């Protein structure tokens, strides 16, 4: 688990029967250690010999603007995009006095501008879906 940067959060025995030696059999494994806030181990339910785990998680949900279209790369006009980026980069970058951040900002803004001009967008069809389809789990879960 350490090689894969995983964390096992249960540290106590979760299975015991009578005078048998208790064992840790129930695992809670994550790749983000701070997602688990608390694990409470309760007694077994009914005749089971497995403990009940009550796990409190910290989940960050993101609000997504569903009205923004996605880029339709299949219909992009790549010839015009290439022509818009076909400039003398050595001359343009020469004006920035070896400031890498300014060069990156210029390159990035040129590329984003070209993408906005020559790659069309399509609806991601989220705007017409019912709210329950967008987030099937209740926020409390």
Q: What's the SSE blueprint?
A:
Blueprint: E1 7-8, E2 29-30, E3 36-42, E4 52-57, E5 70-71, H1 78-85, H2 89-94, H3 100-118, E6 121-122, H4 131-134
Antiparallel strand pairs: 1-2, 3-4, 5-6
Helix pairs in contact: 1-3
Describe this structure in words.
With 141 residues, the chain is an alpha+beta fold. It folds into two domains: 51 residues, no CATH class; 53 residues, no CATH class. It is built from four helices and six strands, in the order E-E-E-E-E-H-H-H-E-H. The strands form three sheets. The protein has a two-stranded antiparallel ribbon with strand order 1-2. Helix 1 runs antiparallel to helix 3. It is elongated. 1% of the residues are buried.
Shape: elongated
| End-to-end separation | 27 Å
Rg of Cα set:
27 Å
- Characterize the main sheet: 2 strands, antiparallel
Percentage of β-strand residues: 5-15%
How many domain modules? 2
Uncertain segments are none
Helix % is 25-40%
Provide key terms for this protein.
141 residues; alpha+beta; 2 domains; two-stranded antiparallel sheet; elongated
Q: In brief, what are we looking at here?
A:
By secondary structure, the protein is α+β, with helices and mostly antiparallel strands. It contains four helices and six strands.
